[in-house]
């Protein structure tokens, strides 16, 4: 296990075997995306997790049991004034951060340990797999404040759960419980609070045991295919398969299967 880098003020970072755990750590502010949270998230992913070859999966969660992330820090923003043009330019950095997490070369899981609202839900939507505790709640309540979800929520949520349900959630600003999120497909599992992190870590470690190149290109093929037509998706699938067909990990996996032993994958 590695200690949290001292340079990260709003995020805790540690590694457990092959899994990096990134904890949003502003519990007194419901882990909102204020302070240094966004640059700390960027450093956790793109300096620490990316540079460590031992890390083969990343798990995001929130500090405490109340919140995964309650979105923007409204207390910080309430008195801020900005023009539309300035906001348009500044918000590109948020889009790029979340898009880079979504496209991160290692699989990213979310253990949603409490409310995931606004930008917090938008962070979770960038993850490949989402698990939640049974007390979690979800929503994009921005329209109640006179704004709209602007960290990808209007784009990712309809792609995930369909246009009608996404419009209902966004336009009513309603919150839904964990069981409804499971039924909608926002999360793939709902567990008691005490079981959430052990289950999420175990799932991340199972994925991390597989050949890193195969996992990476399978993720990319799925992501690319969802953004295009079937023929283009199939072409990318062929490309991704060709990238791993002559890898050392593929040869090791085949040999280990024949020799009835546990494979040792190196990511090569």
Describe the fold and architecture.
With 268 residues, the protein is of the alpha/beta class. It has two domains: 11-208, 2-enoyl-CoA Hydratase, Chain A, domain 1; 212-259, Orthogonal Bundle (Lyase 2-enoyl-coa Hydratase, Chain  A, domain 2), CATH 1.10.12. The protein has eleven helices and ten strands. It has helices spanning 37-51, 74-77, 84-102, 119-125, 153-161, 163-172, 178-184, 193-208, 212-226, 230-244, 248-259; strands spanning 11-16, 19-24, 57-62, 67-69, 108-112, 115-117, 129-133, 137-139, 175-177, 189-191. The chain has a six-stranded mixed β-sheet, with helices on both faces. Strands 4-6-8-9 form a four-stranded mixed β-sheet. α4 (119-125) crosses α5, α5 crosses α6 and α9 packs antiparallel against α10. It is globular, with a radius of gyration of 19 Å. The model has no long low-confidence stretch (mean pLDDT 91).
Which spans of ≥5 residues are poorly predicted at pLDDT below 50? Answer: none
Number of domains: 2
Strand order of the largest sheet: 1-2-3-5-7-10
Q: Helical element count?
A: 11
| Rg (CA only) | 19 Å
Assigned CATH class of the largest domain: Alpha Beta
Overall pLDDT, averaged? 91
**Class by SSE composition:** alpha/beta
């Amino acid at each position: 296990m590695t200690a949290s880098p001292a340079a990260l003020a709003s995020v805790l970072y540690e590694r457990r075997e092959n899994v990096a755990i990134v904890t949003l750590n502003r519990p007194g502010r419901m882990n909102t995306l204020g302070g240094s949270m966004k640059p700390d998230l960027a450093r956790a992913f793109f300096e620490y997790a990316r540079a460590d070859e031992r890390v083969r999966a990343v798990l995001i969660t929130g500090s405490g049991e109340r919140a995964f992330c309650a979105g923007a820090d409204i207390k910080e923003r309430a008195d801020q004034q900005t023009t539309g043009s300035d906001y348009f330019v500044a918000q590109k950095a948020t889009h790029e951060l979340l898009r880079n997490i979504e496209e991160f070369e290692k699989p990213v899981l979310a253990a949603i340990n409490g409310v995931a609202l606004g930008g917090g839900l938008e962070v979770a939507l960038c993850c490949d797999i989402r698990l939640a505790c049974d007390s979690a709640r979800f929503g994009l309540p921005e329209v109640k404040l006179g704004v709209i979800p602007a960290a990808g929520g209007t784009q990712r949520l309809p792609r995930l759960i369909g246009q009608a349900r996404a419009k209902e959630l966004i336009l009513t600003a309603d919150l839904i419980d964990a069981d409804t999120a499971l039924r909608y497909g926002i999360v793939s599992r709902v567990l008691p609070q005490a079981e959430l992190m052990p289950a999420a870590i175990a799932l991340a470690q199972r994925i991390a045991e597989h050949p890193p190149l195969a996992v990476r290109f399978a993720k990319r093929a799925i992501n690319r295919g969802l953004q295009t037509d079937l023929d283009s998706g199939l072409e990318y699938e062929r490309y991704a398969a060709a990238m791993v067909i002559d890898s050392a990990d593929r040869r090791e996996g085949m040999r280990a299967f024949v020799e009835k032993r546990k494979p040792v994958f190196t990511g090569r």
